Amino acid sequence: MKLRNLLLLSALLPVAAMAGEAKIDTGDTAWMIVATAFVMLMTPAGLALFYGGLTRRKNVLNTIGMSLIAFAVGTLVWVVAGYSIAFGSGDFIGTGKILLSGITDKSVSGTIPELLFVAFQGTFAAIAVAIASGSMIERVKFSTFTLFAALWILVVYAPITHWAWGGGETLNFGEMDFAGGTVVHINAGVAGFVVAMILGPRRDYGKSAFKPFSPILVVLGAALLWFGWFGFNAGSEVAADGVAANAFLVTNVAAALGVIGWLLMEYVFYKKATLVGGASGAVAGLVAITPASGSAGVVGAIIIGLVGGALGAYGVSKLKKLFKVDDSLDAFWVHGLVGIWGSIATAIFIAPYLKADDFALGSQLAAQLKAVGLTIVYSGIMTAVVYFISSLLTGGGRVDDETELMGLDEAVHGEDAINL
Question: Which has the closest alpha carbon to 67: 129, 143, 2, 139?
Fold first, then answer.
């Protein structure tokens, strides 16, 4: 790859090294412990509240519970086999690190303990499948989603991670994906969209308004995601250095511009600016900058975030109606569609101080498009396979009409989001 391999991607490749060949940097390690905690906060807190606020009252706890179980199951399958598939030795899939075999407290990845790298990357796997849950909530069985989450991380997420970051050379096209544009957002957005198509729409979808349970929770969840995203993007440098600082800054700038871009589109369409829209815009801006956070400068972040917010609003307001797929919480439009924009924009908006002398825009754009295409095709096909297996093993993937009408909180969990 022509663009600063060591700077943009090699920091993510775990290199198991003998103690005499690599040395742990305490500053980098301290930062990565904090960054990992930041990203952990994103799933069972940030995304859970964001999605919980967007859904209807009778399904709030079930929706939040999907983020919680995604993190729990994701953590388990990641240390058992996911990390091995993603970062083990091999071309198409990695091997050799089942149950973290061979990794000790002396193992080093870059300048940090490999055990810490395992934990950091595990938080990415968990939030990816939790993002996908937003497309299928209010009608998918909790048991089906739990099994789906485990299988999807192993069959879909981990291989794509291996190709992009883990050493899978044959299917690595030289893309720039600093923190997960294809690996996390396009992957999860496509997966959610596919399952939503298979499940079919919710009862009365398109016939009555499905109002969010709590815009307050939506804004609070978005704020927690915004906070956690600093670890997500700046932490992906796996070092406490200038590139991490750049990623931190442009992440904040793009999120702010995402808010502005979404609200501007809302005003054009509806002559109103909603808090739910502003919060969604922040997430869209964060999604858009994710793959470019290690290479874009402030000017690039302004454009990427602004367009990301506007594109997300346009997708939710206009394109969703054309596709007629009940993507419950718009996971594809905010993560998939905006993620595609972010991956393409990564090649276009590179800060001069991070651009290699031999950079060629045409070849880099081609690499980005190849990676996006591979992710869409592989995630789409294999997600369908994983869902059908999960559905078969749990006696059908969709809840019955009575459960859906009652609401999954009471019918499945025996709880109510608000006890008055």
Answer: 129
pLDDT in tens, 280-310: 999 999 999 999 999 999 999 999 999 999 9
DSSP 8-state assignment for residue 202: P
Identify the band that residue 21 occupies on the pLDDT scale cut at 50, 70 and 90: low
* In the chain, where the domains are located: 18-413
Q: Is the pTM of this model over 0.85?
A: yes
Residue 208 β-bridge partners:
205
DSSP conformational letter for 332? I
| Contacts of residue 104, Cβ cutoff 8 Å, sequence gap at least 6 | none
Phi-psi group of 116: left, alpha or beta (phi > 0 → left; psi -120 to 50 → alpha; rest → beta):
alpha
Strand partners, 89: 95
Residue 113 parent element (H or E): strand 112-113
Helix (H, G, I), strand (E, B) or coil at 365: helix
Q: Structure tokens of 198?
A: 């298979």
- Residue-by-residue DSSP string for 116-130: HHHHHHHHHHHHHHH
Question: Distance between CA 202 and CA 59 in Å, rounded?
Answer: 12
Burial environment of residue 418 by CB neighbours within 10 A (0 to 12, 13 to 18, 19 or more) = exposed
| Strands annotated E in 138-273 | none
Q: How far apart are CA 57 and CA 416, in angstroms?
A: 9
Query: How many other β-carbons are positioned within 10 Å of the β-carbon of residue 104?
Result: 11
Helices 242-270, 275-289: crossing angle, 10 deg rounding: 140
For the record, the structure tokens of 33 come out as 């412990």
What are the C-alpha distances in Å from 411 to residues 141, 397, 404, 417? 11, 16, 8, 13
Question: How far is the C-alpha of 411 from the C-alpha of 227, rounded, in Å?
Answer: 34
Nearest CA-CA partner of 112 in 15, 37, 191: 15
Q: For 202-211, 306-315, 387-396, which range has the lowest pLDDT when averaged over its residues?
A: 202-211
Q: How far is CA 3 from CA 8, 190, 292, 367, in A?
A: 8, 27, 12, 11
Whose structure tokens read 């969840």? 221
Identify the three-state secondary structure at position 45: helix
Rounded CA gap, 339 and 233, in Å?
A: 14
What is the CATH code of the structural domain delimited by 18-413? 1.10.3430.10
pLDDT tens, position by position, 228-265: 999 999 999 999 999 999 999 999 999 999 999 999 99
